[in-house]
Amino acid sequence: MGNYYQKDIETMPVEEIKKLQGEKLKKQVRNVYENVAFYRKRMDEAGVKPEDINGIEDLHKLPFVTKADLRDEYPYGMLARPMSDCVRIHSTSGTTGKRVIAYYTQHDIDLWDDCCARALVAAGGSKDDVVQISYGFGLFTGGAGLNGGSHKLGSLTLPMSSGNTERQLQFMCDLGSTILCCTPSYAAYLAESINERGIKDQIKLKAGIFGAEAWSEEMRKSIETNLGLKAYDIYGLTEISGPGVSFECEAQDGMHVNEDHFVAEIIDPETGEVLPEGSVGELVFSCIDKEAFPLLRYRTRDLCRLTREQCSCGRTFIKMSRLMGRTDDMLIIRGVNVFPSQIETVLINNGYPANYQIIVDRVNNSDTLDVNVEITPEMLSDTTMGISEREKKLVADLKAMLGIKAAVHIVEPKSIARSEGKAVRIIDNRKI
Ligand code: DLL
């Protein structure tokens, strides 16, 4: 393992983790009750006093916090420290409504950098690596988070930000980048560009730390083959800190939650009831260590499963599965629940790259589902299967996966816009 593996913490016996979480939670609840009017009011309304929280088993007594609450408290209603103690802000992309602003003290930045350093180590990173950070820098947390982690580790850090693919590839070849950090869709685009330029033999990448958007196991395999690396998932959200809330290890089978800082729960998104381990539901996080913006029981709207099985890497932190979607990106088409990841799985299983678009509309009061998928030049020159046969095959496979019929349109290579950050793959015209 690298030189930043925090073994004493990351392999702590489960009872000790829970005890530690309980102690930190107790302090945090007192802190927010005294310093944040929002929490005082919510807890008073719920009839919960700070004295009622004496251990992690009392967490469920606290009320939830939602994105709507953060918007209502914009810009600094949730601050638990004076503004003068804060050293930075980051913000969500906020495509609808007000942006959410997260604040950080120096302690919060250090804690976050530690989480990202752990993620790099779990992917085999050490001070000898050259870490190319091609997540966006700025208000988005991707660039800053991995940059901080890479510095902690002492690796040579390339703060590339996203975009300017030509320059990305030049630095990757000239400096021999060994770890690439970016969104999976940008990794796929970089792989495509490397292939087109015939420069794969100059690429030294051994690992990729990819997250910030949903990606399937099939997409992982395709990126691993095309870039010749091991691809690790990393999860996080601005409200809780940024990337590194959880990270994958060598087992590549779910992401360990940094449980000394964040407590994860799975709830039923309809009723709010806490679900037993192993159930799929909405992920909820409590920040037990943060100073400036310590959200408690924050509803992420992300759907996944938590399991605490013995991991081959030795870490004892609970694992969250690959994200299965968001409570708000699940499409309901003709009454059937459809997740974009299911469509991606079918496309990639049929050998298509992850360049596709899902278009939903309503015609004569009935929902329509269209999938545009890009063909590769190799497939075009393969005469054993024509375009209409290809479309028919995808229609049949999508029907088997989703239970409903989709219209499939095979489109020319490179006709779907590439993404340098989070890909936009769903166009739902029903909402307009
Ligand atoms: O996306 C933080 C991040 C940056 C994570 C770089 C990983 C790598 P936000 O912009 O606030 O923060 O978006 C958070 O993105 O609630 C999920 O819906 C989604 N998301 C993040 N990581 C993953 C992942 C960053 N590994 C929202 N798989 C989250 C699927 C992810 N979705």
General description of the model:
With 432 residues, the protein is α/β, with parallel strands linked by helices. The protein contains twelve helices and 20 strands. The chain has helices spanning 7-10, 14-35, 37-46, 67-72, 106-122, 141-153, 165-174, 184-197, 217-227, 340-349, 377-380, 387-402; strands at 86-91, 101-105, 130-133, 156-159, 179-182, 207-211, 230-237, 242-248, 255-257, 262-267, 280-287, 298-307, 319-320, 325-326, 331-333, 336-338, 356-363, 366-374, 407-411, 426-428. The strands form four sheets. Strands 3, 4, 5, 6, 7, 8, 9, 10, 11, 12, 13 and 14 form a twelve-stranded mixed sheet that branches. Strands 19-18-17-20 form a four-stranded mixed sheet. Helix 8 (184-197) runs parallel beside helix 9 (217-227). The chain is globular and about 70 Å long. The protein starts with 6 loop residues before the first helix and ends with a strand. The mean pLDDT is 95. The structure holds 5'-O-[hydroxy(phenylacetyl)phosphoryl]adenosine. Residues 92-93, 135, 141-142, 211-214, 233-238, 242-243, 300, 302, 323, 326 line the site of 5'-O-[hydroxy(phenylacetyl)phosphoryl]adenosine (DLL).
